[in-house]
C-alpha cells in the first residue's frame, strides 16, 4: 500500500476539527540514499571532507596532504609573534617535563632516560601530524603506571630488564597501531564508551595509587611490594617502619613537597603566577641535587638517581617482539594502554579546542597519536600521549601552535646530549615529591560531587572505577569502569520508560499522571506512552510491561467495582523506529488482548511505513490508528471526551 | 534550587496565554525507592511474585514449591477429557520423534540410541518443572548440528568415539548449568539480543546445511567432508559422482522423500489432515525397513542403521569431564549450544502461550530447561530443547498439558526396551529423507521477505547469519548474527536522530521541515529537535551534529545574502534523560556558540532537575529555557511569531 493511499484513505477518517493538518509522510528515500546517509552519520558525522567539495583536482591533492600533515597548513601563517609565544611556552613545559619524565619512567619500571626519549621523538612527530594547538605531548603518570603494572605481571623488570624493555617497546608499537587503526577506520566514537564519570573515578584512583607508590622513594624504603592496591602498599610502608625509613630522605622529600604544593597553590590562586608552579619542579631538582652533592647525603642512605645514559635515542626496531608468546602479550597490553592514552589525549584536545574556538577532528588526532607511538617504539620511546598538567601550563604560558612541542623537544634533546650527567646526585625523594604534587590535581573531587548531584548511576560508575583501582589494580578499575558504562547502555536499550497518561481537564492535552496530579484517567481506556524506539532488545519487555499495566489497572478497577478496560491505547510519538521484532511484539500484544481493542495513537512516519509494510494495519484495523490521543479518545469514549 | 522555586520563578516568565499549565515536576523520589524500582523493572519486570502478595506463610511455601514444580498446580485440575487429548497428542509426536531422534543423533555424530535416550529422560523432567502446555521436548536438528560441528572440531568422532561421547555429556551438563543460571539470575533478557531477523537467517542457513549433509546418506556416499559449508559439501558430492553414488539408495531415498513431502503438503493444505504428515515418517521407516529386509538391499550397497543398543539410559555421571583441557572445551561448547537451545525453546513457549492466552515466565522456563539438561547429561542424553515441528504437531493434535510429553516419553521407553532390534534394516537414506523433509520447514522465506519489506537493517542481519552459516560454519553464522545485532544497538545508542523544525503557518505548531513542506524556517533562529536521551555514548555526537546543523545553515544563508543565525534552539521533549557527559556536552556547546545564544525548549522534568543540579541553568540563563518552542520563538523572534 503506497504512501498516497495512506494520505487519503486512513487519515481522512481521523481528521479532527481542530487539527486540519494530516500527519505528513516524507517521500520514500531510495534504499541506497538511506544507506549512504546512515553510513555518513555514523562514520563521517563531523563531515571531514567538507572543504574538499567543489575543488579542482590539484587542490584536492594539496588539501589531502595538508589533512595528513596539518603543519603544512598553519606553517604558512607563522610569524615572529607566534614564535615568541611558542618559545616561552615550550621552555616552560620543558622545565616541567624533564623532572616528570625521569619520575614517570620509574613508574613504568624503566630506566630514567626512556622518559626523556619519549619527550623527544613523539612531540616532534605530533607537531607535524596533529591538529591541537595546545596539547603537550610526553609520558604521563596514569599510562606509565598502567604500562608498568601490566608489563611487570609478565616479566620481572629487575631480574630480566632486557626482556622487559623489549616487551615495553612491543606494547608501544601495538598501542600506536591500535590508535592509528581506530583513527583511520573512523571508529573514534568507541572512545566515548568510557563515560566522563568513569574516567573521573579512574583517574582519581590512579592518582592515589601513584602517590602511594611514591612512598617508597619518599620514605627511602628499600623493600617494597609490587602490588599497587592500597592494602599491600600500606603493609609495606608500616612493616618497614622500624628499620626502613631514612630520615634524611624524608626531610628532603617533605621539604620540597611542601615547596611544590605551595608553588602550585600560588599558581592556582593568581593566574598570573602560573609560571611559579611551572618551574618549581626544576628548581627543586636543581636545589636538591646541589644539596646532596654538597652534603654527600647519598652516603647517608639517601637514594639517588645515580646514572642517566647520555646521548639520544637509539633505534629499537630490532628489539620489538615480532613472534612468540611475548608478541601476543605485548599486543594485549598495547591495545589497553593505547586506548586509555587516547582517552586522555582526545579529552585534552577537545577541551582546549572548545575554549579557543577551533575544531579538531578526533579521528585525525588518533592517527597522529598512533603514528607518533609507532615511531616512538622504533626509537626507544614508550607510550606518550597528551598530559593534562603540561597542556594546561602550555595554554597558560601562551602557546600558539604545536611549535611549543618542537621547542620542548629540542630542550630535551640538549638535555640528553649534555645535561644528563648533572642528574647523578638527584635524590629519588625529589622525583617522588614531584610526582605526588603532579598527580594530586588528578583527584577531581569537585567533579565527583557534581556527578553525585546530577546522576546517581554515573556516580556508581565513578566510585566503582575509583575503588577498583585503589583496592584492586589499574586493570580491575578499568574493567569495572567499562562494565558499569556498558550496564547503563544495556539498561537504556532494554528497559525504556513507559508512562500512564491522563487528560488534563478542559484541554485536549494528555500528560503523565505522575507528573500532573490534575490529569484524569479515562474510564474504560488505558493510555500508555512508550518512550523509546521498539527494537529487538526491548520489544518483549515493552509487550510484557504494557500487559502488566493492564493487569494492574484491572485489579484496581475490580477492587473498586468499576467496569474493566476496553481499549488499550499506545501513544507512540516517542517511538522513533520499530523493527521486525517490534512488529512481532505488537502482533502478539494484539493477540493477547483478545476481547479488548488495541489502539495506536500518533505513530511517526517511519513507524507508519513499517506498520503498512508488515500488514499490521490490516490486523489491528486502520480505524484503530489515530493521529492524536485526543482523536482516539473521541472515538473510543466519546461521552468522556465531551464531558471533561 | 528546589523544585518549588522552579515552579514560580523561571516558569512564570514564560507563561503563555494559551497554555496556562506550568510544566509539572514529579516529587523527588528517594534514592532507595528509585534504585529499587529500577532493579524491579530490570530483573522482575513480569512481576513473578504477584501471587505471593498478602498470603499466609504456609500458603507462600506452597506457592513457592508450586512455582518450582508447576505440575503440582495443574495436576489437580486434571481429568479424563484432558488425558484423552494428551494421549492422542503424545502418541502422534512419539511416532514423529522416533525416526527423527535416530537421524538427529547422527547429525551430532552420536550413536542412534542417544537420540532416543534424549527423548526419554528430558521430557519427563520438563513435564514436572516447565510451564508451557504445548512444547514438545527432545533433540532438535539445529542444536544437534551445532553440537556435532563444535564437538568434532575438538575430537574425531570416528577414531575416538569414547572421548567424543564424554565431551558431548560435558557440553550437555554445561548447557544445562548455563540455562539454569540465566533463569535463576533472571538474566533471561540476554536471549532477546539475538534478534528475530537474525534467528530467521540462522535457522534457514542451518536447515540448508543440514539438508546438504544428508546428501551423504541420501546418495549413499561413503567418503564425505567433515566441513559443513556448501562449497566443501558440493565438492564431496560431485567428486564421488562417478563411483560413490549408490542407485538403490537414491531410489529408496527419493521415493520416500517424495512421499514425505506430499504428506507434508496435504497436512498444510487441510489442517484436518495434519496427522498424515505426522505419521508419515514412521510409516516410511516401517515400509523401507520391511523392503530392505525382504530384498536384502543391504548386500547391494544400501547402508543401514545396523545396530541400535537395546535397553534404557545408563548413568553417565562418571563419563563427564570434571578436570583437564576438555572441561574448558566442553564448557565453551555447552554455553554456546545451551543459549541457542534456549532461544528456540523460549520462542516456542511464547508463541503458543500467546495463541492459547496463558502466561509463561521466561526465566522459570529456563530453569526447567536447565535442570532437564543437567539431569540428561547424567543419564546419557545430549542437549534437548523444544522442537518447532513437534510442538506444532503437538498443538494441532490437541495437547492439553505437558502430559503429552510424558506419554511420548513412555512410548520412547517401550521402543528402547523392545522395539530397537526392528530398526536393524532401516536404510540410512530414509533417515536422511526424514531429516530433509523436517528441516525444510525451517527455511522461512515468507518471514525473510517480510523482513526485507519492514526493516532493511534487519534484513542485513538475516542474510548475514544465513550466508555465514551456509558458506562458513554454524558458529560463524551465529557470530555474524550476534555482531550485526550488536552493531544495530550500537547505532541506536551512538547516532540518534535530529530534526530541523519549522513553523506550520497560522499555528503554534513546529514540525520537521522534511516531513511537512509547508513548515517555514524561522529567520535568525535554528530549531533542532534531539530524538533521544543524551548519554555518554552519544553526547559528543549530538554536540558535533548540532554545530554542523549550524554551520550548514550559515553557509546557506551566506550564499543567499541573508543575516546569520542568532539563536540555536534545542527542542528537548524526546530527551528522556541526561547524564554528566550530556551536561558536559551542553556546556561545551554553549561555549562554542560564543556570540550566539543557546536556547532550550521543553525539557522534561528529569532533565530540568539535572540542569539545576549541575548549575547549567545559571550558565545558560534561566530566561533562555522555555516550556515550548512557540514560547522560545515568541521571545527570540517576536516579529516573526506574530506575522506568520
Automatic annotation (TrEMBL), chains A, B:
It comes from Rehmannia glutinosa. This is STAS domain-containing protein. The keyword Calcium does not apply. It is found in: Membrane. The chain crosses the membrane at residues 135-152, 164-185, 197-215, 245-262, 274-294, 333-354, 366-385, 405-423, 430-452, 464-491. Its main location: membrane. Keywords: Membrane, Transmembrane, Transmembrane helix. InterPro entries: S04_transporter_CS, SLC26A/SulP_dom, SLC26A/SulP_fam, STAS_dom, STAS_dom_sf. It holds the Pfam family Sulfate_transp. Residues 1-22 are annotated as: Disordered. It is a multi-pass membrane protein. Residues 515-636 form the STAS domain. The keyword Transmembrane helix applies.
Amino acid at each position: 500500500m503506497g504512501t498516497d493511499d495512506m494520505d487519503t484513505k486512513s487519515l481522512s477518517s481521523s481528521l479532527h476539527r481542530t487539527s486540519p493538518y494530516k500527519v505528513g509522510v516524507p517521500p520514500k528515500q531510495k534504499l541506497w540514499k538511506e544507506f549512504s546517509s546512515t553510513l555518513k552519520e555514523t562514520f563521517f558525522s563531523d563531515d571531514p571532507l567538507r572543504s574538499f567539495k567543489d575543488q579542482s583536482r590539484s587542490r584536492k591533492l594539496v588539501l589531502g596532504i595538508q589533512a595528513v600533515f596539518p603543519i603544512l597548513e598553519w606553517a604558512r601563517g607563522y610569524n615572529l609573534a607566534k614564535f615568541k609565544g611558542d618559545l616561552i611556552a615550550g621552555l616552560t613545559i620543558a622545565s616541567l617535563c624533564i623532572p616528570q619524565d625521569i619520575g614517570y619512567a620509574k613508574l613504568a619500571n624503566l630506566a630514567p632516560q626512556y622518559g626523556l626519549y619519549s619527550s623527544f621523538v613523539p612531540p616532534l612527530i605530533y607537531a607535524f601530524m596533529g591538529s591541537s594547538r595546545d596539547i603537550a605531548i610526553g609520558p604521563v603518570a596514569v599510562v606509565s603506571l598502567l604500562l608498568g603494572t601490566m608489563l611487570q605481571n609478565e616479566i620481572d623488570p629487575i631480574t630480566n630488564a632486557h626482556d622487559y624493555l623489549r616487551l615495553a617497546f612491543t606494547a608501544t608499537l601495538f598501542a600506536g597501531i591500535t590508535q592509528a587503526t581506530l583513527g583511520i577506520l573512523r571508529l573514534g566514537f568507541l572512545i566515548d564508551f568510557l563515560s566522563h564519570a568513569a574516567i573521573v573515578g579512574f583517574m582519581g584512583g590512579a592518582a592515589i595509587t601513584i602517590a602511594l607508590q611514591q612512598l617508597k622513594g619518599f620514605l627511602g624504603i628499600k623493600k617494597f611490594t609490587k602490588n599497587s592496591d592500597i592494602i599491600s602498599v600500606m603493609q609495606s610502608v608500616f612493616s618497614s617502619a622500624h628499620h626502613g625509613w631514612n630520615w634524611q630522605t624524608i626531610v628532603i622529600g617533605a621539604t620540597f613537597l611542601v615547596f611544590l604544593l605551595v608553588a602550585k597553590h600560588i599558581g592556582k590562586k593568581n593566574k598570573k603566577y602560573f609560571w611559579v608552579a611551572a618551574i618549581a619542579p626544576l628548581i627543586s631538582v636543581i636545589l636538591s641535587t646541589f644539596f646532596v652533592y654538597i652534603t654527600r647525603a647519598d652516603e647517608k642512605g639517601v637514594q639517588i638517581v645515580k646514572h642517566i645514559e647520555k646521548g639520544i635515542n637509539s633505534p629499537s626496531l630490532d628489539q620489538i617482539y615480532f613472534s612468540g608468546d611475548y608478541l601476543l602479550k605485548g599486543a594485549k597490553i598495547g591495545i589497553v594502554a593505547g586506548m586509555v592514552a587516547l582517552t586522555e589525549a582526545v579529552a585534552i584536545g577537545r577541551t582546549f579546542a572548545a575554549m579557543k574556538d577551533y575544531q579538531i577532528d578526533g579521528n585525525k588526532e588518533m592517527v597522529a597519536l598512533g603514528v607518533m607511538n609507532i615511531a616512538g617504539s622504533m626509537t626507544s620511546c614508550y607510550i606518550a600521549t597528551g598530559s593534562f598538567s603540561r597542556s594546561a601550563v602550555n595554554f597558560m604560558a601562551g602557546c600558539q601552535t604545536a611549535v611549543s612541542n618542537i621547542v620542548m623537544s629540542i630542550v630535551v634533546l640538549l638535555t640528553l646530549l649534555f645535561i644528563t650527567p648533572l642528574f647523578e646526585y638527584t635524590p629519588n625523594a625529589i622525583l617522588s615529591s614531584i610526582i605526588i604534587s603532579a598527580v594530586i590535581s588528578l583527584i577531581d573531587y569537585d567533579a565527583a560531587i557534581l556527578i553525585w548531584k546530577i546522576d546517581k548511576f554515573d556516580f556508581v560508575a565513578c566510585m566503582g572505577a575509583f575503588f577498583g583501582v585503589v583496592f584492586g589494580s589499574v586493570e580491575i578499575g578499568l574493567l569495572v569502569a567499562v562494565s558499569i558504562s556498558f550496564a547503563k547502555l544495556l539498561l537504556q536499550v532494554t528497559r525504556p520508560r513507559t508512562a500512564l497518561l491522563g487528560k488534563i481537564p478542559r484541554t485536549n492535552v494528555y500528560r503523565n499522571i505522575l507528573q500532573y496530579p490534575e490529569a484524569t484517567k479515562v474510564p474504560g481506556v488505558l493510555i500508555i506512552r512508550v518512550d523509546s524506539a521498539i527494537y529487538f532488545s526491548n520489544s518483549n519487555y515493552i509487550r510484557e510491561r504494557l500487559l502488566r499495566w493492564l493487569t494492574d489497572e484491572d485489579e484496581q478497577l475490580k477492587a473498586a467495582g468499576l467496569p474493566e478496560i476496553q481499549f488499550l491505547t499506545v501513544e507512540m510519538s516517542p517511538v522513533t523506529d520499530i523493527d521486525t521484532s517490534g512488529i512481532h511484539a505488537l502482533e502478539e500484544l494484539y493477540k493477547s488482548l483478545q476481547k479488548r481493542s488495541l489502539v495506536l495513537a500518533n505513530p511517526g512516519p517511519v513507524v507508519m511505513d513499517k506498520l503498512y509494510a508488515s500488514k499490521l494495519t490490516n490486523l489491528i484495523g486502520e480505524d484503530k490508528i489515530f493521529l492524536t490521543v485526543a482523536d482516539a479518545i473521541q472515538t473510543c469514549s466519546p461521552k468522556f471526551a465531551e464531558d471533561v
